[in-house]
Every structure is written in C-alpha cells, then in structure tokens.
Predict the 3D structure of the following.
Amino acid sequence: MSKKVTVYTTNTCAYCVMVKKYLTSKGQTYEEVNLDEKPELRQEIISLSGQMTVPVTVVTDSDHEEKQPEVTVGWNPGKLAAAIAS
Amino acid sequence: MEKHDIVIVGAGPSALAAAVYTTREDMDTVLFDKGVIGGLAAVTDWVDNYPGFSKGISGLDLAGELQAQAERFGADIRFGEVTGIDDAGDHRIVRTTEGDIQAKAVLIATGSDYKKIGVPGEKEFYGRGVHYCATCDGAFYRDKNLVVVGGGNSAVQEGLFLTRFTKHIDLLVRSTVKASEVLQHDLEKAVQEGKITVHLETVTEEIVGEDGKVTKVIASQKGEKKEFKTDGVFVFVGLLPNTGFLEGTGVELDEFGFVKSDEGLMTSVNGVFVSGDVRSGATMQIASAVGEGATAALKMREFVEGRVATYAG
C-alpha cells in the first residue's frame, strides 16, 4: 500500500523541518507545499486542518484515493508514524 | 536494556552543546526530545545576541548548526518522551516512551515552554486565532490585524517579526516594556511607522470570537475596559520549566518548578545533572544555556570517571 504525502510548510517554521526530517528518516517521499510561495493556498489549509498553523501533513492512500486522507497538524511523530505505516 | 554512557533529556541548545562535548570525549550519548530539535531557539525568528554570528542568525539555522555539530561527533538524537529517571546506584535508568535505557549519567536539559495568559477564550481558540509561535503561524495573518500580548524580549522580537505580514499590531503590555534597549529601539521605529501601537498597563482579560474565529480581545487599562478588534492573538508572556516528568523521581525543584543543582550542576539525584533554561537560577539566554551544557558535560565526565561524589546542594 503506497502513500502519497503532502507537507504544507512555511520558510520559518521549525516544526515543519522536523516533519520533513522525520519522513525522510523513514524513507517516505513527500511533496512540500510552501505557503510563503503559494499564499493563495492558506485558506485550503485552514479548511483541511481546522487550524491556522503549519506544518500540516496530509497522507493519502494511493491505492484507495476515495478514502479520507489522514491529516496531522503540527509535529506529532506518533500520528505521522501511524499515518504512513503500510 | 540498552546501555549508554550518557542520556540527555532534551535536544535544545544546552543539550546539543553538552552532546558535542560528551561525544568528543568518546562518551556514547543519546538525546531524547519530544518537541523540536533546537528547542525554543529553533522557533525564534532571529538571534542577534549569540556570540560568533556578527550579523545575527535565524533561530532555525542556529538550531540546525548545533544539531549538525552534535551529530558530527556521533550524538544519537531520538524522538521520544522521557517519563522518569531512577538512580540504581552504579547507573541510572531512564524511562522513555521508546523503552527503558541504562545510563552512567543523565543530563536534564528540557528547557522551558511558553506560558499561557490563562484567560477565557485562550484555550478554546488555540490554533484558530490564538498562537504562541510567530515563525510557525505568522504567515496566516498577511494584511490582517493582530494583538500581541507581552512586554519582554520575546513579545517585542516576535511582534516585530509579525509586522512583515500584518496590517497593524496592538501590543498589550501588562506594565511597561521590559525588552532590551536594542529591541525597544526597533519597537519605537515600528511605532513611528504606524505598524505597532503599544498599550501599557493593559491587562488582557478575555479573547472573544464568533463562528470559530477570534474577533476581539477585552482588556483593562487602569481600571477602564478596552476592546481591541483583531484577527488573531499571539501570546508571549514568559516561560514555564519542562519538569512535569520529574514528579516522583526525587529530583528537587525550587518553588517555581525549576531544577535545583549544586555548583557542579548535579541535581539531588546522584548522577543526574541539569543545564540550561530548566535549571534554577538560569538566565534564560541561549549563550548561557550552551555554556552550562558544556560545563555539565565536563562534570558528567568527572562523575563517570569517579572523580565527583554526590549532590552538594
């Protein structure tokens, strides 16, 4: 079961660095969406996460895209581990 | 059970500095942190008073350099939470969410975390209009109005950082601004440019919202009620030591919850040391935290080599 992971970040966010390092350490590829470069996506993040903060990590099951994505707000290695587990 | 020479609880500047020293002495060192590597320094926008960086450095970059240096000499930094420490005589047992670990010596360098104001609305709107990290969440307030609560270095520094996004900031200061002269000078410039308005003797009393969004802050100024319309609130009202996990360990805390130590940075538990912001008497500066981390490392080496007795506090 492969996972598609998107991490929403900003340039100055230290917790975003933690999430990216964690995913890399687990061999999980991800797409980074930087809200400083794409400020028009801020509202999308708020709708997705219910909060005005980054990092927001969205994990989708590539084989079952109809399933609700797993959304992790902030630096939460326990939740991320569960989300990317096969 | 895993065995290591040194276990360090925390991975902020003090912890990482200690790890540089212990690993260079060939002491097998593991660090545990449940938060961000680099601690509060990592989430600070800019650091101008850490020696060695003549033009200043971003907190994120400083944290990255400290981490890289510690790891270069073999420090093993792990994500996880320490839940307790026991003195087992000739070694210590560190209990973590990832399992128990045996260590010859332990360093508590858990730093501190942001204090809450403790007013209605603060908890309810956390992450949805109430924030404690400007570098994390400031970008959501482009062209908006903000209230920043606090009057110390953090409030002024992070408030100035936020002006790169905001239309206007109201700075609510309980008494007077107590930030450093340099920061007060920069604040005055922002005030003159109309970016910030400073409200002295203004006590925040409630954060109010509608439809899930913060809309205003209610405060009192010299007994008079005041309302500040706002799109969000950033809180910088001080720090609390991260010592909750030490309950029941025998590590003595002072009346404010900071860890007591003797002159050799040993706590009341044999073989358990402390450094940085979490230590009673700490000056809450990155430079001093790093210095203490190095000192603690040298003291731990003496202890492991049998050259230091017990707590002399």
Remarks:
- The interface with chain A takes residues 35-38, 42-43, 45, 58-60, 63-64, 79, 127-129, 131, 133, 135-142, 232 of chain B (CB under 8 Å).
